[in-house]
Amino acid sequence: MEEFDLNGREFVELCSLLKLLGLCSSGGSAKMAISEGRVSVEGQVELRKRCKIRPGQVVEFGGQQITII
């Protein structure tokens, strides 16, 4: 399980998170993965590309789990 630190920010958008972590090569590929239903937040498929991800949430993509701190 990987952790992502918001560094004092209130949230990060889901598509930005995937790009920042290097799980997707670009914002466009992150948005495509989300729209195809390949990303889940808290165990539920998330289709909103700009969904606000906040501390304590767990995002899953490509066999990876990311906890937001």
Largest sheet: 5 strands, mixed
Mean pLDDT: 96
Distance between the termini: 12 Å
β content, as a range? 25-35%
Envelope shape? globular
Uncertain spans: none
Structural domain count:
1
- Put simply, the count of helices is 2
> What's the oligomerization state?
single chain
N-to-C SSE series?
A: EEHHEEEEE
Number of strands: 7
How many whole angstroms does the radius of gyration measure?
11 Å
Give the CATH class: Alpha Beta
The CATH homologous superfamily corresponds to RNA-binding S4 domain
Q: Helix amount, in percent? A: 10-25%
Overview of this protein structure:
It is a single chain. This protein is α+β, with helices and mostly antiparallel strands and 69 residues long. Helices cover 23% and strands 30% of the residues. It is built from 2 helices and 7 strands, in the order E-E-H-H-E-E-E-E-E. A 5-stranded mixed sheet has the order 1-7-6-3-4, with no helix packed on it. Helix 1 crosses helix 2. The chain is globular, with a radius of gyration of 11 Å. It starts with a strand and ends with a strand. The mean pLDDT is 96.
